[in-house]
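Continuing the series of single-chain predictions for the mutant panel. This is the parent chain; the variants come on the following pages.
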Amino acid sequence: MLYSNIDDAVAEAQVRALRKGFLQKDVYRSLKGNNNMSEFKIVMEETDYGSAIFEGQREDRFDVQLLRMNMKKKLMAEMQYLISQSSWPLNEFLTRMLHRYQIENVVYVIEGLKSHRQIEDLMRNADPLGDFPELKNV
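Parent structure:
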């Protein structure tokens, strides 16, 4: 019992805290039929997503793709934190969960380069969950 949770206690507590950050049913229902951007921001800023997911949004126009990208960036930051705080085999499992997105990013970059697109545009539009340092070397 003394060593039962010595390796992954921090990561487990972090995952439990992340679970508490999910949108509750009543909040989701209030957002579902709402087309008002200001009310959407107010509701989302009170959650764990905060105001960081609205980074780069213009007041007159709501960009869903930018919102999705910002939410994925936040999720990737949380995944990287979990990986850094856990030990083997949990960190290996979490890393392997991201492999699908990394493979998709490699394919995306190769296809983009074949179409003569700029690497800066490709890297900007790549999925944040599949980001890894060697992607630029493709």
